[in-house]
Amino acid sequence: MLLRYTLMGFERNYQIKYPSKQLNYFSTLHSDNRLNHWFVTGLADSEGTFTIMTDQNQKRTLGWRVQAKFQIGLHKRDLALLLQVQQFFGGIGSIGKSGNMVFYSVSSVKDLTNTIIPHFLKYPLLTQKAADFLLFKAIVDLIINKVHLTIEGLNQIINIKASMNTALSQIVKSNFSNIVPVNRALINTDNIPDPQWITGFVNGEGTFDIKIYRSKTNTGYAVQLRFRIPQHERDTKLIEVLIKYFGSGVIEKHTKFPAVTLVIVKFSHLIEKVIPFFELYSLIGIKQTDFLDWCKIAKLMTNGSHLTIEGLNLIRTIKGGMNKGRPTE
User: Fold this and answer.
1) Which of 19, 55, 195, 258 has the greatest number of C-beta atoms within 10 Å?
2) How far apart are CA 68 and CA 322, in angstroms?
3) Which bin fits 5, alpha (ψ -120 to 50), beta or left (φ > 0)?
4) For the segment 249-296, what is each residue's pLDDT rounded down to a tens digit?
5) Which CATH number belongs to the domain containing residue 110 in this structure?
6) CB 285 within 8 A of CB 202
7) What's its job (predicted)?
8) Shared domain check, 21 and 166
9) How far apart are alpha carbons 197 and 281 in whole angstroms?
10) Are residues 88 and 168 in the same domain?
11) Over the stretch 142-199, which tens digit does the pLDDT of each residue have?
12) Radius of gyration, CA atoms only, the chain
């Protein structure tokens, strides 16, 4: 999560507006695969950001430029999924690239007002990111009404931004005294409104991985399947709701960072609950490919193949090509 926030903002030099012909071509290929509304919200809950940029610009009356941006960032292997997101929102915004990451960005006030904000009002975010969205919306409303063009309005925006996800820059702090951060809402999610939200969320944050460790078995090793969803500790309550939803799992706290992780390792629960869920509500892109490979290993374990040298070697091979081991091209 820290890496994702560090990357935000650097993609501006790589903005690419995908031509309508390419979007139409993509639409033709996936005409029956329009993304689910709750899937998009879940994906945004995991990989999206609502950002307000304030920087000095002498061409502006007050010497400051204020810009709102909604963005979803994924690994470049999931460019096709970002194109689907762009298609879902009617082709607005642009796709940008920075290193191994690709970003879908919308910064037009008109598009934010007419498309992005209405979506998240109707299909609300469930993580504490929803608080950022509410503050983001408040600033967009001020921009629409031209309030940001007055010194009073600019100060109001700075006070709101001070309570959002990213800290104020030193330049902003040094130019605006008497900054008073506004109250930030505490999001209290006590249920999952739609299973597709989970699929979208896991598409971004979840991992299907395999742990192979030394053990007193015939092969000298044991195999453990794991399903995990990491999250900032401020969303511990949401992780508890997910554990209740699946009827399985424990919460592990990170020893160095303010993070928690939902972990499900009980084999019977993975076979009876996790796998059937994602077979019914399919993941998309690379995460789906990893899930299918993970299921192959689950099947090998069900048949007892992991107890043989041949089966263990096959599992190692499959594991080696998953997640970070999967070719990037």
Assistant:
1) 195
2) 36
3) alpha
4) 999 999 999 999 999 999 999 999 999 999 999 999 999 999 999 999
5) 3.10.28.10
6) no
7) Mitochondrial DNA endonuclease involved in intron homing.
8) yes
9) 10
10) yes
11) 999 988 878 888 889 889 998 988 777 777 777 887 888 899 999 999 999 999 999 9
12) 22
